[in-house]
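Let us practice reading a record.
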Amino acid sequence: MRILACSSCLLLLPLALPGQTWSEFPDAGDLPGNAQAPVGTVSPLTAIVGNLVGATDVDMFLIEIADASSFSASTVGGATFDTQLWLFHTDGRGVAANDDSAASAQSALTAAMLPHPGRYLLAITGYDRDPIASGAQMWNDTPYNVERRPDGPRRGEALDGWSGSAVAGAYSIALTGCKNPGKQIVLPDNHHLTENAAMVPTGSSAWWQSNGGHFQVLYEASHFTNAGVYTGWLDRVLFRGEDGEPNAGGQQWANVTLRLGRTSLTPATLGTNFAANLAACDTLSPVVTFPTVTVARSVGSFPNNYNIVLDVFATLGGFWYDATGGNLLVDVTLPTAAVLPPTSGGVMPMQDTSGAAAFVRGSGLTAASAAAVTGTYSAFPPVVAFNIDSGVPPTPAIPATNESYGAACNGAASAFYQTFRNGQPFDLSGLVL
């Protein structure tokens, strides 16, 4: 059920959680910029059905892989023609592909090649229509009967087209470990791309601290309204590791608590007293306790993947947020120190913000103890993302590709370039280099 919380009442709303079969409509696109996203955010996504029309048709879908260990996608028994399945990161870089599986002409993907849970692009083609980048194949044609990472001449590049002709027909892709992607908002709304003043991994360890602690983050409602979201359910809160920094993850905190609230406080008027900031909220969720929060692996991409996920829907049914009535306050306590696996050590620095207040439109408060009454004010809060059930159709946020090159002091790159593919708008306003 959905829980609508305010300072004086709780309203319970019914919610069904059936597995969903998504039917392609209209025709799905073939590149990250026009991939089709199944509508909805909270129900499992168990199948996609559609139709490849003609020898050059390709169907691409945005999916959310919630459980990377149990992920699968299969057309075995779901098509009568020779299929191919392709999995990509949202920026178009390849993850895995399969042509023939289980001694059939249909295809299957597993969790074997997945680097982490999150959003991916799943494409289906008939044999032999293949993805290309810069005019050459991302995957070789053979071996055709195994699941493979990109191994072609353009294996490290991002998809920008397709080549070859193919058979076609109706299909059904059976899925496990997936859910509807929903709308995703990144706060600040201009931090979809990597941003770092020196293009070296720094980040901040003041938020998710290895020794525990307490932090609050406040972001203006304009981040939501700029994305067309005025009201909606906040279902998941996500944080990402510092851009460009890999980490094995595995660090765990016990009994982490979360509260979400709507407030008239602004980034400039956020106080240093945690309780007073919560009391200023006119809408406030109950305390949500997560028995265990585990840091997932960071692959070190630019921007990095989200490696800390707080599933508000699974624990509370979501938090109803009306962006027309106030700003958003996020309150997180870490009552104990994290358990640190020897393979990865301390918690990696988390991606924080930079730039003038007009661009960040947010602020934060940190303390090294969960029992602290007051905290230290910060004008550079962490980057936070939300999965939202708002009725607004989701669209993939496609990051630009960032590459460093040249040699400078201490092994750092001397320069970098940013490549915009698949029709992304070129907009670096508010970011600091």
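A brief commentary: The first strand starts at residue 2 and ends at 5.
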